[in-house]
Specification:
The protein is α/β, with parallel strands linked by helices. It contains five helices and six strands. Helix 1 packs across helix 2. The longest helix is centred in the middle third of the chain and has 18 residues. The protein binds adenosine-5'-diphosphate.
């Protein structure tokens, strides 16, 4: 069983073998946590993403999928890019949201990562209601039964941290 911890703050300052990015399908950068990771990790991150687009992912990364790439200057060995689904009130996209966590963990496992840090995927620009975004995150991480020893959920606000604390109990 993995340890699941909560921390509040900026994921780019967190020390873990793998840091997960809530990317968009283009893999070429964006706002929110994606922008922060590219800024803090330096140009190597975009270079590596461009290379992925030119080789294995010509049409980008679909929602729910995950890919590992360099962490550039970050205090991590890998950035795992995953693409959350945009929230929809008419369609249940939560299996795809959970896939982001499950597949990132599977990838981290395959790489031999001992620790991984997640932001709240789809919990920003992609509009997911925060309570449910956190509920899906916790469910996916608990169900994944991964061999990665340490999983840290990085809440970017006190509001997210409060929800996470409540749902982790
Ligand atoms: P998405 O497009 O998947 O919704 P966002 O980056 O817009 O992705 O938001 C995802 C979550 O990441 C939000 O909760 C947002 O507050 C949070 N976030 C933004 N910047 C950072 C950061 N530097 N570290 C950790 N979390 C962050």
């Amino acid at each position: 069983m993995s340890d699941i911890d909560l921390t509040v703050g900026d994921i780019t300052a967190f020390r873990a073998d793998a840091i997960v990015n809530a990317a968009n399908s283009s893999l070429l950068g964006g706002g929110g946590v994606d922008g922060a990771i590219h800024r803090a990790g330096g140009p190597a991150i975009l270079r590596d993403c461009r290379l992925l687009r030119e080789t294995s992912l010509p049409s980008g990364l679909e929602p729910g999928a995950a890919v590992a790439a360099t962490a550039g200057d970050l205090a991590a060995r890998w950035v795992i890019h995953t693409v959350g689904p945009v929230y929809s009130s008419s369609e249940d996209r939560s299996p795809t949201l959970r896939d982001c966590y499950t597949r990132s963990l599977r990838l981290a496992n395959a790489l031999g990562a001992g620790s991984i840090a997640f932001p709240l995927i789809s919990g920003g620009a992609y509009g997911w209601p925060l309570d449910d975004a956190v509920a899906q995150q916790i469910r996916a991480v608990k169900e994944s039964d991964s061999a990665v020893e340490s999983i840290t959920l990085v809440a970017f606000s006190d509001a997210i941290a409060d929800i996470t604390r409540r749902l982790l109990r």
